[in-house]
Amino acid sequence: MSDPEEAHRPAAAAAPRTRTRRRTGTYRAADQRRSEILDAAVRHFARKGYLSASMQKVAEDVGISHTGLLHHFPSKRHLLMAVLEAREAEAVSRFYGELDPEAPDVVRLLQLVAAQSRLDVTQPGLMQMYAALAAEAGGENHPAHAYFQQRYARIVAFIASAVAHGIAAGVVIPGTDGKAVAREMLAVADGLQIQWALSDGSLDLPTAHRDYLDRLCRRITVSGDGLGSDV
To answer: What single-letter DSSP state applies at residue 8?
Structure first.
């Protein structure tokens, strides 16, 4: 609704609106710069791991000073956590937003995991970064230790919930251990990513991962059906 007093304000009153538009543009530019920094950080964390990555080199990649980088991310730890949180939020938004968190469809979940695997190989730096960080983060003093610990716990709990819902719905074979299924899925996904990286990309990771998920689906479902031909 228009402000009825708008037409009666003097011309000078328009000045604050102009400043607001300029500030909005500034914020948009800042968001773009943050995105560029996060992309550069992914490349450096993938190549060198967190411990050896250099904030100075990240800044140089983006074309800003080290001080300019610290304006956006006051420490390497802040940068690392921003990268991890942004990438996880993107994956959840792109793939898993359709799932009911209270009653996730286990077959649809497996289909979405296969779809994410297809996207992952188009972002090799991101996969390499996760592999490098997960290996480093085993030490309790690593800044991503708690993140990966909590991330794995969340994934295991979510998959186990999907399996339990599938059992209750008559889709999954009764007695299926949801946590065991989840840990197996994580182990296979991580193992295939490592093999893919060591093969210099020659391993067809999406096909290998989809075939595994298809076999898993046939193994745990009452119908014995797989993922479907369109996945």
So the answer is: G
